[in-house]
Amino acid sequence: MNYYSLNNKNQHVSFQEAVIKGLAPDRGLYFPSTITPLSQSFFDGIELLSNEEIAFHVIQQFVGNEISEVELKKILTETLCFDFPCVLIEENVYSLELYHGPTMAFKDVGARFMSRCLAYFNKDKNQKNTVLVATSGDTGGAVASGFLGVKGVEVIILYPSGKVSDIQERQLTTLGQNITALEVDGVFDDCQDMVKKAFLDESLQHKNLTSANSINIARWLPQMFYFFFAYKQLKKHNKPLIVSCPSGNFGNICAGILAKRLGLPIAHFVASTNANDTVPQFLQTGKYEPKPSVATISNAMDVGNPSNFVRIQEMYNNDLKEFEKDFSSYTYTDEETKFAIQNIYANTGYIAEPHGAVGYLGLKNEMHKQQNSIGLFLETAHPIKFLDVVESVLNIQLPIPKQIESVLGIDKIKVKIKSYEDLKNFLG
Ligand SMILES: *Cc1c(COP(=O)(O)O)cnc(C)c1O
Fold first, then answer.
1. What is the pLDDT of residues 316-332, one digit of tens each?
2. Nearest residue (CA) to ligand 1, atom 8
3. Nearest to residue 393, comparing CAs of 332, 343, 359?
4. pLDDT tens for residues 162-189?
5. Is residue 32 within 8 Å of residue 337, measured between CB atoms?
6. Where are the alpha helices (DSSP H) in 94-150?
7. How far, in whole angstroms, is CA 30 from its chain's centroid?
């Protein structure tokens, strides 16, 4: 399977090279050169397939023959070792709970898949890769856990000081082994900029740097699975399906759109954002104007310049009219988000955390416009990951799940950095 750089369509690389490089040398994101829809019989019989079988059908064309069928199936079994339930919370509205993995964040799937692909590509080599990743919240913990102990891979995680929750910080600072956390004096965009700069820095060539953000195809592509797993559960309704993704870097929703390109019948996508409203603004004005991120209670979506948006534009040939048929985007304040958490709980008993609540709000907005549909919002993290907000807004105490309990008593170990120079000195 080939991938091209979105900055130069004539530059093709293999799946392996795209995974190892992360970002193309010209700074473009990689994109698959062909997208072949899946057969009708696959969709007709999807309820009879296991999650691993569905995932194999979905991902195989994007991996090609670069990983053998047996190995790929093994990677998928290890990646998908937990549930992805669609929970009915009110009439016609489902929450797709993506938080039943080891770090209770949806990014577990992408991180586990990518780490195993890298380990596979490194198995006969003596080389080491350094995964450099910027996190605004949940990526860090999922990457740390997904890559822990993976041979030949050193992981360095940059996170904005004071902008991630205590539990999130613990998840990325307490593992040790091949995982190091760098606490950056700045916001998420500063972390992301440093990471991007390091990738282009000739003097760091010897570190074999790669990314584990959703710019990496091995992080991004497996996110398609969620939409297929949801369809498998909701197909029985036989109604148009609207899916709302709480969006930050737009990797998840971009994977959903790719799933639709494979033939998955999703009628409409909603990108629900917090106050970081670059994309909702774009749909209003037709101008894409990135801006510095602002801090919100749904901090994993505090992104002012969503990296994956260029991939979405590629899939629509930059045609705004076509794009708008499939896609809406709405922005919500922290006040509206807190109010939604309260309302959902009061009316249905369901506990949503801030990202899921933003997704819920966007979904409901779209469902008013498109009656007689089934709505799904992605619940991208367990409420415990945002315990401060959820407990104070609902005035309840959440029980601590065992996945989280295990990091609570351990000391945080991290290195503080201020500038790109500090990062460079640290990498050496
Ligand atoms: C990363 C993340 C998001 C945003 O996903 P994108 O793919 O970056 O749009 C939403 N919610 C949570 C909890 C996350 O960790």
1. 999 999 999 999 999 99
2. 249
3. 343
4. 988 888 899 989 998 999 999 999 988 8
5. no
6. 107-122, 138-147
7. 16
135 lines ligand 1 (CB under 6 A): no
Tell me: pLDDT of 238 over 90: yes
Q: Which of 254, 355, 387 to mutate to test the pocket of ligand 1 (most atoms within 8 A of CB)?
A: 355
186 Cα–ligand 1 center, Å: 20
186-190 long-range Cβ contacts below 8 angstroms, 24+ apart: 186/160, 186/161, 186/418, 187/160, 187/163, 187/292, 187/293, 187/295, 187/302, 188/134, 188/135, 188/136, 188/160, 188/163, 188/293, 188/302, 188/303, 189/292, 189/293, 189/303, 189/304, 189/305, 190/160
Read off the pLDDT of each residue in 229-242 and give the average, rounded to a whole number. Answer: 98
The residues annotated with a catalytic role in the active site are 107
Confidence of residue 205 (pLDDT cuts 50, 70, 90): confident
Any ligand 1 atom below 6 A from CB of 329: no
Q: Which residue has the tokens 């929450």?
A: 95
Q: Is 142 in the pocket of ligand 1 (CB under 6 A)?
A: no
Rama region for 372: left / alpha / beta (φ>0; ψ in -120 to 50; rest): left
Q: Whose CA is nearest to atom 1 of ligand 1?
A: 300
Which residues, in sequence order, are bridge partners of residue 165? none
Cα 86 to ligand 1 centre (Å): 18
Beta strands across the sheet bearing 153-160: 209-211, 129-134, 153-160, 179-184, 415-417
- Residue 342 to residue 203: CA distance in whole angstroms: 51
Assigned token pair, 121 = 């590509």
The pair of structure tokens assigned to 193 is 């900029």
- Alpha-carbon span 90 to 376, nearest angstrom: 11
pLDDT in tens, 340-395: 999 999 999 999 999 999 999 999 999 999 889 999 999 999 999 898 899 999 99
- Collapsed DSSP state (helix, strand, coil) of residue 86: strand
- Say how far apart CA 85 and CA 51 lie, in whole Å: 12
Average pLDDT over residues 193-218: 89
CB 271 within 8 A of CB 362: yes
Contact in structure between 293 and 331 (CB atoms under 8 Å): no
